[in-house]
Write a structure and sequence with these properties.
Number of strands: 11
Structural class: alpha/beta
CATH topology of the largest domain: TIM Barrel
Largest sheet: 8 strands, parallel
CATH superfamily of the largest domain: Metal-dependent hydrolases
Number of helices: 22
CATH architecture of the largest domain: Alpha-Beta Barrel
Length: 506
């Protein structure tokens, strides 16, 4: 293969008319195209006769939609901002295929932004006792308890039920309520003109809903719905990032973080018993990256205790928050080096457009800290040595296309560096990050952009199958759990192929 690549480099580094090789122009051209296709993600995934037939059907829809987009830019969902493209995607044959396709695992998902905002409005906001107050900056805070010091509220608390009842139109009230926890706007270019605007609003939303979701009945209902939405979107397993906030109940009692994990563990056990083909979830403990070293050390001590009790459930550690404004990993080394060897790191790294700044250099420190996967890795393409290390060491990049677009890193998804990762067969898993905050319920919408925007036009089932299998391969499932996962995945994949050929998918 190396000799073949050297020959191709020789061919394209000089005018072909001067080449003394035996290859004709057409042969040389085809050889380069074939070599690129074999190098790409999916290049060594082989399709059965049945899968090849499904691929033909899928490609008809894909190429048809791309052709329509080529003729009419306003209909080119693959190039549009998600807020403008979503109505087109919802009507897409490709999207229908992806919704019904087994998608394996989601490995990068923040729990308090994982559930559709519409469900939160219809369920959580109608729970008896929900309160709302306003901070000095005008941000609403939702809760089921009165703790003004923690919430920094400047206004009186009002009951959401009373506000709704006294409103002129309850439907309008609910629509306005949903905007508290959803970034959607028909004009993102106007409402969020800079990355600062969108990140400020984004991080505010976690503060809006966070304390309400720490209320024990809301916590249980919310996380059950999280698993339901993943399961209904044909996701079979999840690794959830959570800060493990302390829970409270209606009597005002507050519980330690260990209780939070026990609640998640119990939900997981119950859900997997009801859905035997769902492998459940595992937890990645996530801490705010703006903490000082001493604060981080204290939190890591709590993590150690929880990890010791639940070593196969609380599997790792991460730092979260806007990376550009957070502490660089290098400054937090004294705390991070104190993690137990059994706890793996899953570090956000390079979620930035900067080059040669502390944010993208986080990628280097993540690798030196032996991270298991890299969250986002958007800037990785600018660091060829690091990208080669990621590929050589089989460290998966958790690519979240819609998140990167909504949070202002890229507008036209065809320019996302994930295209380069796929082209160079860098290990990639497709993730959804915070789908509840932008109407991207489940994982299918991110898969849509992966195959329609990041992958080349002629890429179909081979790329999709590789990405699905990658999600299990690069998970923290034990060897025994992975064996079971692949058996379930093979069976559900084969059934899906049969349904496509029977005409029950499109």
């Amino acid at each position: 293969m190396k000799q073949f690549l050297f020959l191709l480099l020789h061919l394209i580094s000089q005018p072909l008319i001067q080449s003394q090789t035996a290859l004709s122009y057409e042969q040389a051209r085809q050889a380069v195209l074939t070599a690129e296709e074999e190098l790409m993600t999916g290049g060594h995934t082989y399709l059965s006769t049945q899968e090849a037939k499904v691929d033909d059907i899928f490609m008809e829809y894909k190429l048809g939609e791309l052709s329509q987009g080529f003729r009419n830019a306003e209909q080119n969902a693959a190039a549009l901002h998600f807020f403008k493209a979503k109505p087109l995607i919802d009507r897409s044959g490709v999207f229908r295929f992806l919704q019904k396709m087994p998608k394996g695992a989601v490995l990068h998902l923040h729990n308090t932004a994982s559930v559709s905002s519409k469900w939160v409005v219809q369920d959580i906001s109608y729970m008896p006792g929900m309160l709302r107050c306003t901070t000095a900056t005008g941000r609403s805070v939702l809760s089921f308890r009165r703790t003004p010091k923690e919430h920094q509220c400047q206004s009186q608390y009002v009951r959401v039920a009373d506000e709704r009842q006294n409103s002129v139109d309850r439907q309008v009230y609910d629509q306005n309520f949903e905007r508290l926890i959803n970034l959607y706007t028909p004009v993102p270019e106007l409402e969020y003109p800079t990355i600062t605007h969108v990140w400020d609003r984004f991080q505010d939303m976690f503060d809006v809903i966070g304390d309400a979701l720490a209320y024990l009945p809301a916590f249980r209902a919310y996380h059950w719905q999280m698993l339901e939405e993943l399961y209904n979107d044909n996701v079979m397993y999840a690794e959830i990032r959570t800060s493990c906030k302390k829970l409270y109940d209606a009597s005002g009692r507050t519980f330690p973080r260990e209780r939070t994990i026990r609640e998640l563990y119990a939900l997981n056990e119950k859900f997997t018993k009801l859905h035997p083909d769902f492998l459940g979830m595992k937890i990645i403990f996530a801490v705010y990256r703006g903490y000082e070293v001493d604060q981080l050390k204290e939190t890591i001590e709590e993590f150690k205790q929880i990890h010791e009790i639940f070593p196969q459930f609380v599997v790792g550690f991460d730092l979260v928050g806007q990376e550009d404004k957070g502490k660089p990993l290098y400054t937090l080394l004294p705390a991070l080096r104190d993690l137990p060897p059994t706890a793996r790191l899953f570090l956000h790294g390079g979620e930035t457009n900067w080059f040669g700044a502390s944010t993208d250099i986080n990628l280097l420190d993540a690798l030196l800290l032996n991270t298991t996967r890299i969250g986002h890795g958007y800037a990785l393409a600018k660091h060829p040595i690091l990208m080669n290390a990621v590929k050589t060491r089989h460290i998966a990049v958790e690519v979240s296309p819609i998140s990167n677009q909504v949070l202002h890193l890229v507008w036209d998804m065809r320019n996302h560096p994930g295209s380069q990762y796929l082209a160079l067969d860098v290990p990639v898993v497709i993730c959804n990050d915070d789908p509840g905050f932008w109407n991207a319920k489940g994982l299918s919408y991110d898969f849509y952009y992966a195959i329609m925007s990041l992958a080349p036009n002629n890429a179909g089932l081979r790329v999709l199958k590789t990405l699905v299998w990658n999600s299990v391969r690069y998970s923290t499932l034990t060897e025994e759990e992975q064996t079971r996962a692949f058996k379930i995945l093979e069976l559900s994949w084969t059934r899906f192929m049969e349904k496509v050929l029977q005409g029950s998918v499109f």
